[in-house]
Design goal:
The structure is a homotrimer. The first copy, chain A, has one domain: UDP-N-acetylmuramoyl-L-alanine:D-glutamate ligase (3-Layer(aba) Sandwich). Chain A is built from eleven helices and nine strands.
């Protein structure tokens, strides 16, 4: 299922332009190298377009946004669209402040995204910025669970229809969906929530995976979600054995991503099609 | 002694708004998650007040300050005061440049802090910004030692009286004091000075511990200091056994914080009341 | 060969002012502590000169430059020159955008560097900013190899003549050269390219090593290059034994630097004089 996806990353070695927050930027860079891609971080308007031009994909993360970097996000996003590059949005904290929500809406209006990845609360904020709200929204309140899974999948497909982007909702259960098809992914470990940046790292990987696999965005994004989840499981098992804590968990997650193969991924992925 | 303090963090899961330097920001975020709190980093004036409003505590660290972030510190600090949130100041490098000293003084003038944490040199600079200097200041020159401990404790209590904040002075011997009472803490290991950010991480933890324990600020700050020191001791023991160096020490410090319990802390804390 | 160099770092404990990118800044700070130096990060124009004044060396890295920090780089660079401090340039991504190239040229024009360290592509961009190009340039295309080593060494010596700086070109084979003499260093491991920041960390170490060894800049820079390469070899050996990945490799590189001694370095260094 993921063999071509994984091979394309190694072969194409995609360069990913990241305009991302300074909290997790080092982990994002290291995870991109770990999965076979290359990172370039550049957040100034003076070079945003030019840097994006030499890349395969653009990863926009609003985690520690400010007026200066928002301009760069818009400039890079438009240029990446012109060049038909893969563009990923990680709307960190959308809904938590008017500035983040407004910036998310402005990005959605001016840039066409290939993938939008966030937790359910961020993705619901994204939905509010995309015209008329749908009935299903209200049913997916705090978390995606087995009880509201059908509604959550319908919501993700609906938002994909509205935005044209693959929608990735991460949590205890992950969903990756385009307007027609959804994958439900049950990899990962709850301890991952004790490590900052697993979401940011995943968005970077989604940009790399999708950038190296044009025309297969949904499958590529799903492979990235499974890779992160499986790495989390393997890493957690190891820290339990070695009696270690959350910082070593973080290191082992990246370690496992650097050692991931298509075979290993296929063996460990827990995916269902909806 | 620390059972309630530790339990409140787990139960209340405080959200801590950090306006902090970009050198150690990832470690601060990870240590907050490790100790049972949650971090949110936001340094732009456009959202500083709003983000602080949804939090329990605010952690201001001037490590890599600039004109843009100083405005956000002031705005967030005032808003946090209005809402009676816990507010911590980490005056990194105060005294090393006029800009840092001036910013420290401006923050002290316009924001009421619950806790101020720094090394002796930074705290002495803080003292200079708080009106008339006291006689004891001159006696605590470079480091807190057994020889000048009484003077240092008196100095900390005096500064607490002037500022209304709990004063935490860290070094080989740590002091946490309000105007009446001081705890002298002898946990930690000299190798911790070979890891950047143990001070920044501690300030983040102090914000979380005090935020979850309103009305017990001194005891909460002391618990945070002990937690960091004991984690350092345990981490150092382990890198010695495993023949490792300073980067693994950093990881193991956070690991130990993520595995800390009230029982473990009480067993390892070396505290004296002054 | 390196005994005095290494001892001077421990004895003089140089304070290194870094104006560096936010991607790898934490690793740079930790590696400076690991090798026996101390870091201070300060990138605002309001304090750049003052902070540099209290330091031994200045490390300018343009990895995530912006208009605000470029001003600080120029101000700090000029002040460091006035005070005859060691000044290192790491022209990250020079050639990748007009902004980075222009900034590199402006820095070269207005600041006198003690050492310039980059990969071959960055150093070739530096050369373009230094007046008339030399014939050898074209021959050193993508990487320094055994085939083009003589040309690369001649190029490095020529650029040192033009800039007055020791030139350090890193890659599979590393070169450190002044106008008269070059060291070719064959330490390191290809897996190091899967870790972000080994170059940035090395530039920080070069600033520390050269700052503590005035008058021996070439030898000090060479010692730093060997230290990083040997640490990479030892770290790689260990992750192979322990079945780990790239994040642990990063940690072990810093671990090995923190455990490096002159004896260990002499035993492992693979150097040739050209």
């Amino acid at each position: 299922m993921f063999e071509d996806i994984m091979e394309n990353i190694i072969v194409k070695h995609p360069l990913v332009h990241c305009i991302t927050n300074y909290v997790t930027v080092n982990d994002v860079a290291n995870v991109l190298l770990a999965c076979g891609a290359s990172p370039i971080m550049a957040d100034d308007e003076k070079e945003a377009e030019e840097i994006t031009s030499i890349c395969t994909a653009l990863n926009i993360n609003i985690g520690t946004l400010n007026s200066r970097t928002v301009k760069s996000m818009l400039a890079a996003g438009k240029k990446a669209n012109e060049l038909s590059h893969t563009v990923v949005l990680d709307p960190v904290g959308a809904g938590a402040s008017a500035f983040r929500t407004k910036t998310t809406f402005e990005l959605l209006e001016k840039v066409k995204f290939s993938v939008i990845r966030g937790n359910i609360s961020e993705i619901k904020t994204v939905d509010k910025g995309c015209g008329t709200t749908q009935g299903v929204d209200a049913d997916v309140s705090d978390a995606v669970t087995d009880e509201n899974l059908e509604e959550a999948v319908a919501f993700a497909k609906g938002l994909s229809r509205k935005t044209g982007a693959v929608i990735v909702i991460t949590g205890a259960i992950d969903i990756a969906a385009d307007s027609e098809k959804a994958y439900v992914i049950r990899n990962g470990n709850p301890a991952m929530s004790k490590v900052t940046g697993t979401g940011c790292m995943l968005s970077g990987m989604v940009a790399a995976f999708a950038g190296a696999n044009k025309g297969k965005t949904l499958l590529a994004a799903t492979a990235a979600v499974c890779t992160m989840g499986l790495a989390g499981e393997l890493a957690f098992k190891r820290i339990e054995e070695e009696d270690k804590g959350t910082s070593t968990l973080r290191a082992y997650i990246i370690d496992e991503i650097s050692r991931m193969t298509a075979g290993r991924l296929e063996g460990g992925a827990r995916i269902e099609v909806k």
